[in-house]
Specification:
The chain is α+β, with helices and mostly antiparallel strands. Among the domains are: about 50 residues, SH3 type barrels; about 70 residues, no CATH class. The chain is about 55% helix and about 10% strand. The chain is built from 38 helices and 24 strands. The strands form 7 sheets. A 7-stranded mixed sheet has the order 6-7-21-8-17-11-12, sandwiched between helices. It has a 5-stranded antiparallel sheet with strand order 4-3-2-1-5. A 3-stranded antiparallel sheet has the order 18-19-20. It is flat and about 170 Å long.
Length: about 1200
């Protein structure tokens, strides 16, 4: 029981029962009226009866006005911590210490506490000397690095919107200011921030400048403490934001800055307009952001790129890729159906052409890449169409791949400018300060794979914080036998083991399922449940229909939606996209996709999954942090509305509780944050006690430490000495440092006085010796100068004499050399002339001989033809003498002889013309063949050239279209003058042989002679009952039936088989030729043939009973009026003639492509010699009809 007076401060426990409600501070306004009136910190009044005053407790004086270091709080509880932050926040004081840990509350406004004057105030100051500030943490990082010669790191954590990014920029600004050099590299390090924010930050519902990636900036310092370089590591960029955003959120800043700040000429070149014109920028219905000037930001980005050595060409290429992404987002897809398969097409639009031109690829290649997928199995490529949803997914994956690789390239480009690798020759070890700005803990309504990775990183950072603050503290106290009260703390090691450390952890199971081609999100969830359902940190789904699983994190339970986990984890691009990039003429896009193109060439390599990459990067980060001395900055978000001076108590207490701040304050207050080994303490503070020797020559270091600390701090102070170390409080270290600085200052003044006297005496001696030396040197100089004048005169005289002598010798030698050159050149020219003359004479001789031999052969042939004509003249004259007089017979024979001679002359001229034409045609054919060799082979074009004549239906049967190349002579019969010309060009027949009559060799006669059963030469559109030709082997008979059915399917007269249940056993990936090889030599087809015959008999009996049925009438209707048949009639006819398809093991029970059918038909003809005649017969019996679709040819 305690008494209250007006103006007293109390704790008021409202007992609402909510999880994150703690007692609130209040001041007593009235206590004399029988009731107690209190006014809490939020301005609400409460009336309490004295008998019910159990929920009121007095407040410690340290909690009334707040303290700078929460270790000094008397009310060591969550309510005291929260009220301390609230009081300081309302006074525009956003920073508070917890020992060396800084708590920063986001003010959501600009405060005048980051000026150059503030930087000077906090330079070279201990924590506690000045009010809490982010500059104090940066200053201690810098001077601890120099003092202890050890790497430092500053871990900035907190939820999204808590101010982590701004804190990182302030630390960078401070380090650049105090390094003292103000060099170009410092400016480059600072200018990297605007570029990374433009490409990696975006407006969210929680933060107007939210970092959608994590980064670790490692700043390198030389031995003088100046910045000499930096290196940036990026983690897990949120690539999905490029394609979609939540309500009231924006895409990445760079898109809006580019559209606002780019010049009209450049925008017209890239085809850009306003932000509202692009689907990728309007998904969240928010294109403007209050407080951001996109136009000014774009200018800052361009200037920063110039500082970081981005060339003008690279800036243009980056803008082209960003514009291509926006145009790709405006592409529209329409659904189609091809061969009973869902497909889609890209609607032609200016955006498609613009995007393709910016990426320097063909628009048709972009359309094919977005609407089809090519699978390569055993050297064969199979192309399958994509549905509209799949097409959109491929487009989004392509866009995310471009932006993600562009972001990685930009980070590498920045590192190339600011990173200076250490010199191998230098023996000085370079020190660094690392700044970790990584995403905070996330728990949304729908949490996906990205949230799992983010929360996994925060689990590791929390474990690092716990290990540093709690575990290491208590373990070291126990090892040193320090009097210490053990404090329980929350350890999340079990959650880390379940997620990533122990065998069969969650990440390994996700990776394993991602590597399986048949792995799905459902199978992954099943494995997670079966492996971790007994783990207390794992929350399985309530039933088999739910797709969510939960994990107990250090900050609470988070439920993850498993749909899409594997696709996001694979993070791979299809081969078609890689091929599209490879075909681009743009060198920049090839450069950013260089690793993917190399991976695509090496088909056996599999790209690492996103979780394995992130886990490996996180492990490297944790190893880096473990070797550094850490400083922690805990950022707190005061409200969800991004408004200043609005403090949400429940939100803040949740962040404090999850960050372990309560345990931190307790252990820091009760513990000893400052500790030194005995040798370090003696070497550092022996200046405080005269006569103490250095540590390496002392035997009793512990006693020396106790002597120093007792003399300077007193025996009653709270310090302890362990086995190997001495433990101090924060204020002890500050007191010792102040006294040490004073003692060193005194010693320094004494040393300076002595050194200055020594320096003055040394300077006098040096001046006197310098004067003597100058006199000596001047005398020597004058003597040497006179000597040099005399020497130069003699040298000049010698030079003139020698030059005259050498000039005469040179003239003589030059004349001799000129004469020799003239003789040699004449000899070589004459030798070359005679060699060429002999070669020309040889060529002429051979050429004349060849011409003479050809002329001789031609004259001999002419002579033979004239002798033959003379013999014919004499024979005719002899014959005509019996019919007329000798004179008339001779005249008639001469006339016919002259006609024959004239005809021979004409034939000779015709042959000459034909030879010239043949030579010209051969030359053109060779040129055409050379051109065709250089062109790539396209299977589709080849099939179209071979069978494209089937597409044009002619007026006569069996003459549909134009014959393929090489078969034109079979298409038409020469008539008239063309026939006569062909007859003239052909060689004359032998006179003694009779021409063979080919009219008897007709296909109808061949069919009537050799076809089995009732088959005729006419074409039928149904499966055969038996092969057309006789085959002894049962396998050949079954193959013949299978070939006929495949031909009917290929021609479109028989539908594809309906595949109701798809069993993915891998058989569809086996090449057609392999399947045909497997059927060779089998002798098990007799039973199948018998089954087919039995089914034929059963069908005949059923058909005889249903002769007058509806189907028979429909068939009759079909035969009479074929052009007006309906779809129902076609379906019934198809069902009626499907009897021959059952039982044939050589046929595929799934729809096949036209290329597979063509392989099957030609493969049987190649591998089964007895099938060649059947195939020729089938091709003769299958002419395309006018109504048949022949696009497959």
């Amino acid at each position: 029981m305690f008494f209250l007076m007006q103006g007293d401060y109390v704790w008021l426990d409202l007992k609402t029962g909510r999880e994150f409600v703690v007692p609130v501070g209040a001041v007593v306004k009235l206590c004399d009226s029988g009731q107690i009136q209190v006014l809490d910190d939020e301005g609400r009044e409460h009336w309490i009866f004295p008998q019910n005053a159990t929920n009121i407790k007095p407040m410690h004086p340290t909690s009334i006005h707040g303290v700078e270091d929460m270790i000094r709080l008397g009310d060591l509880n969550e309510a005291g911590i929260l009220r301390n932050l609230l009081i300081r926040y309302n006074e525009h004081v956003i920073y508070t210490y917890t020992g060396s840990i800084l708590v920063a509350v986001n003010p959501y406004q600009l405060l005048p506490i980051y000026t150059p004057d503030q930087i000077r105030l906090y330079t070279n100051r201990k924590i506690g000397e000045m009010p809490p500030h982010i500059f104090a943490i940066a200053d201690n990082c810098y001077f601890n690095m120099q003092r202890n010669n050890k790497d430092q790191c500053c871990i900035i954590s907190g939820e999204s919107g808590a101010g982590k990014t701004e804190s990182t920029k302030l630390i960078l600004q401070f380090l650049a200011a105090i390094s003292g050099q103000h060099s170009w590299i410092e400016q480059q390090v600072l200018e990297a921030t605007p570029i990374l924010e433009a490409f990696g930050n975006a407006k969210t519902i929680r933060n107007d400048n939210s970092s959608r990636f994590g980064k670790y900036i490692d700043i390198h310092f030389n031995k003088r403490g100046a910045i000499e370089g930096a290196k940036i590591e990026q983690y897990l960029l949120e690539k999905s934001r490029v394609c979609r955003q939540a309500a009231d959120e924006r895409n990445y800043h760079i898109f809006y800055c580019m559209l606002k700040g780019m010049g009209p000429e450049m925008k017209a070149k890239l085809g850009l307009g306003l932000a509202r014109d692009y689907c990728y920028l309007t998904a969240g219905n928010c294109t403007e952001c209050d407080g951001r000037d996109d136009l000014a930001d774009y200018s800052s980005i361009l200037s920063a790129m110039k500082v970081l050595m981005f060339s003008e060409t690279e800036n243009v290429e980056i803008s082209k890729l960003l514009a291509a992404i926006l145009h790709m987002g405006n592409l529209r897809f329409e659904a189609r159906t091809y061969d009973n398969l869902d497909a889609c097409v890209v609607v032609r639009s200016p955006d498609l052409v613009t995007a393709a031109s910016l990426m320097e690829v063909e628009p048709k290649d972009v359309m094919v890449c977005l609407t089809t997928r090519t699978l390569i199995t055993r050297g064969e490529s199979v192309t399958t169409p994509l549905s509209v949803e799949q097409g959109l997914d491929v487009r989004d994956a392509f866009v995310k791949g471009i932006y993600g690789r562009l972001f990685v390239w930009i980070v590498d480009k920045i590192n190339a400018a600011i990173y200076r690798p250490p010199s191998c020759e230098s023996s000085v070890i370079r020190r660094s300060i690392g700044l970790l700005d990584i995403f905070g803990f996330e728990n949304f309504i729908v949490n996906s794979f990205e949230q799992l990775c983010i929360n996994f990183a925060n689990e590791n950072l929390q474990q690092f914080f716990v290990r540093h603050v709690f575990k290491l503290e208590q373990e070291e106290y126990n090892l040193e036998d320090i009097n210490w009260q053990h404090i329980e703390f929350t350890d999340n090691q079990e959650a880390l083991d379940m997620i990533a450390n122990k065998p069969m952890n969650i990440i390994s199971l996700i990776d394993e399922e991602s590597k399986f081609p048949k792995g799905t999100d459902a199978t992954m969830l099943y494995k997670l449940n079966s492996q971790h359902k007994l783990n207390t940190n794992y929350i399985p789904p309530k039933n088999s229909y739910e797709t969510q699983f939960g994990i107990q994190h250090f900050a609470g339970v988070v439920h993850y939606e498993s749909r899409g986990f594997l696709e996001k984890n694979r993070d791979s691009l299809h081969t078609d996209i890689i091929q599209l990039v490879h075909s681009s003429k743009n060198k920049f896009i090839k450069q950013i996709f260089q690793a993917d193109v190399a991976m695509g060439v090496e088909t056996r390599k599999r790209s690492p999954t996103l979780s394995s990459q992130f886990k490996r990067s996180l492990e490297m980060l944790m190893r880096t942090l473990s070797v550094c001395q850490p400083f922690f900055v805990r950022c707190i978000k005061p409200n969800e509305f991004k408004k200043p001076l609005l403090f949400d108590r429940e939100l803040c207490i949740r962040q404090l509780r999850y960050s372990g701040m309560m345990e931190t304050i307790r252990i820091r207050r009760a513990g000893y944050p400052i500790r030194y080994s005995f040798a370090e303490f003696v070497d550092r503070y022996r200046v405080l006690m005269p006569g103490i020797k250095p540590a390496h020559i002392q035997d009793d270091l512990k006693g020396t430490c106790q002597q120093i600390v007792s003399a300077r701090l007193g025996k009653q102070e709270d310090w302890q000495i362990g086995k190997t170390k001495i433990f101090l409080k924060d204020h002890h270290d500050m007191q010792l440092e102040i006294e040490r600085d004073k003692a060193i200052t005194d010693k320094v003044i004494l040393i300076q006085k002595s050194v200055r006297g020594l320096k003055a005496r040394s300077n006098f001696r040096r001046l006197r010796s310098a004067v003597v030396c100058i006199q000596k040197v001047w005398r020597g100089y004058r003597s040497r100068k006179n000597y040099q004048i005399m020497k130069s005169g003699f040298i000049r005289l010698q030079a003139v004499c020698r030059s005259r002598k050498y000039y005469r010798s040179y003239r003589i030698t030059r004349c001799r050399i000129t004469l020799i050159q003239a003789r040699c050149r004449g000899f070589l020219i004459r030798q070359t002339f005679w060699r060429r003359l002999r070669a020309v004479l040889t060529l002429q001789a051979y050429t004349r001989g060849m011409i003479a031999r050809r002329l001789c052969q031609r004259l001999r042939a002419e002579h033979q033809r004239r002798l033959e004509a003379e013999r014919q003249r004499l024979a005719e004259e002899e014959q005509l003498r019996n019919q007329m007089t000798v004179r008339r017979a001779k005249a008639e024979a001469d006339r016919k002889h002259q006609e024959r001679l004239f005809q021979l002359a004409q034939q000779q001229e015709e042959r000459d013309r034909e030879e010239k034409e043949e030579a010209r045609r051969k030359k053109e054919l060779l040129d055409q063949m050379e051109r065709e060799k250089e062109q790539p082979v396209d299977h589709s074009d080849m099939v179209d050239r071979m069978f494209g004549f089937l597409g044009d239906s002619g007026p006569l049967p069996n003459q549909d279209g134009q014959a393929p190349a090489g078969f034109e002579d079979l298409e038409q019969t020469p008539r008239g003058e063309e026939a006569e010309e062909e007859m003239l060009n052909e060689a004359p027949p032998l006179p003694d042989e009779e021409e063979e009559d080919l009219s008897e060799y007709k296909f109808s006669k061949f069919a009537a002679t050799y076809f089995q059963g009732l088959s005729t030469h006419t074409y039928i559109r149904r499966p055969l009952k038996q092969p057309l030709l006789f085959h002894e082997d049962e396998g050949d008979q079954l193959a013949a039936l299978a070939v006929w059915i495949t031909v009917l399917r290929f021609m479109g007269d028989l539908p594809e088989p309906k595949c109701q249940i798809v069993i993915n056993d891998g058989s569809e990936k086996i090449p057609v030729m392999t399947k045909i090889y497997e059927t060779l030599g089998k002798r098990t087809y007799k039973r199948e043939l018998q089954e087919l015959q039995v089914e034929e008999e059963v069908r005949r009996s059923i058909d005889s009973q249903k002769r007058n049925s509806v189907r028979h009438k429909l068939v009759s209707l079909t035969l009479k009026r074929k052009s007006k048949i309906t779809e129902e009639v076609t379906r019934r006819l198809t069902e009626g003639v499907d009897y021959g398809l059952q039982g044939n093991s050589m046929l595929e029970d799934r729809p096949t492509s036209n290329l597979e059918k063509l392989h099957f038909i030609i493969g049987n003809g190649i591998l089964r010699p007895t099938e060649e005649t059947s195939l020729l017969t089938a091709s003769t019996c299958c002419p395309p009809s006018p109504g048949r679709s022949t696009t497959s040819w």
